[in-house]
Amino acid sequence: MNAVKNSPAKRTAYGGVLAACALIFLFLATILPTNRIFFYGLSSVFIAVMILEYGTTAGWMFYVVTSLLALIIIPHKLRLIPYILVLGHYGVFKTLIERLHNRFFEAILKLVVLNIGFLLAYLTVTTLFKINIKFPFHPAFIIIAVQPLFLVYDFVFTLCIRFYLDRIKPNIKN
Questions:
Q1: Most exposed: 75, 113, 121, 149, by fewest CB within 10 Å?
Q2: Can you list the domains of the chain with their CATH numbers?
Q3: pLDDT in tens, the chain (174 residues)
Q4: What value, to the nearest 5°, has the Cα angle with vertex 17 and ends 74 and 45?
Q5: Whole-structure pTM value
């Protein structure tokens, strides 16, 4: 039974279904006028499922593949930046960080990952694409306000993982 679960064909098929789901939510995040952050967040949860089923390396591969596929098939390339640079890889970093088993240090590292992602996204947009960003508030206020919101996102991410493990995974035949 374990040989079937770990077969390359099953891993590829499972990853393909998860990638399709992630890409659907990414597409919705790029075309809908509202709820974009919700769909970006939801699209990033599928990497956790891949990690749970096949490990961290499969999670990295899933992130790279979904990012590249999104760049190929989704028309609004700039709107993919939140996924590619901020949220898409978060499941892998979350997995690695939570191995430390120190909630305070974990929270600090998660916020560091978030802020590095935001910095990379900002530099990509302003330097690479030469877009001048006008903030409705001072950038420092936005950065400070986003920190607790991200911790809420992390908590909801954990709830999604728990939901998968408790409700979905038991109903999937190996």
A1: 75
A2: 2-171 (1.10.1760)
A3: 455 567 888 889 999 999 999 999 999 999 999 899 999 999 999 999 999 999 999 999 999 999 999 999 999 999 999 999 999 999 999 999 999 999 999 999 999 999 999 999 999 999 988 888 888 888 889 889 999 999 999 999 999 999 999 999 999 876
A4: 75
A5: 0.90
